Amino acid sequence: MVKRKEKRNKKVVIIGAGFGGLSAAIRLAHGGFDVEVFDRQNHIGGKAGSLEIDGYRFDTGPSLITMREVFSQLFEEVGRSLEDYVELVPLDTICTYFFDDGSGLNARGNPEDFAREVEAKTADSAETVLGYLDYSSGIYRKTAALFLWSSLHSLSTYTKGAVWKGVLGRGRLDAQRTMDEANRDFFQDPRMVQLFDRYATYNGSDPYQVPATLNIIPHVEYTLGAYAGGRGIAAIPEAMGRLAKELGVVFHLGPEEGRVEEILHRNGRISGVRVG
Hints:
alpha+beta; FAD/NAD(P)-binding domain; 3-stranded parallel β-sheet; 3-stranded antiparallel β-sheet; 12 strands; 36% helix; 21% strand
């Protein structure tokens, strides 16, 4: 069990109870701060909410998560186990693609199964798919230490050997061509180019302009795995909210109690918030 630090008699206000707000609240509360979270919605989770209609439940935002270890790490940092709060189920089929010509393709969660699916339904081979995922994995190995697990704004980041390995190997990060150009070099079938080009949209990018370095994403989804909560994605922020409350976090939800109208300043410092 990780010992919680003593209270510092400092109050922290977090605006927004999405994944970012919840994880910040958990870490800060564990660090000894009094934390209050405000959100104008009536539920926590941000866009990862839940809706019930006629006995059916729908996730209103993301339908799966990747990089499960990020969630595990959060719970471990405060002396808890993710498995005690929520069940994350690996997906056998991540999603199903439907194309204009009427064809379809199941994006299987296991790389070998996905490769066989592609070979059976497109002009590309299983070997091509596995080679592409290996290429994607190579970008991940060179960039993850710098771009995923470290802050670009922290000096301590640049004392890490793994970070400099990525920086010095930037010529192998495939940044000199676009994502679309790289995908066209790998695949013959235009449907497969379209499938992998769409990963640029994960962060609002254009596959015809963004560097092919963003081809890191298929490795994260297919090789590291995609997951869903046993009761949908909404079960994950629910679990995080439960942990936050155990650590003393206070939530203010709804348009009256949780809507922040103004951030107050005094002498160049934030002094509070005006709500309601």
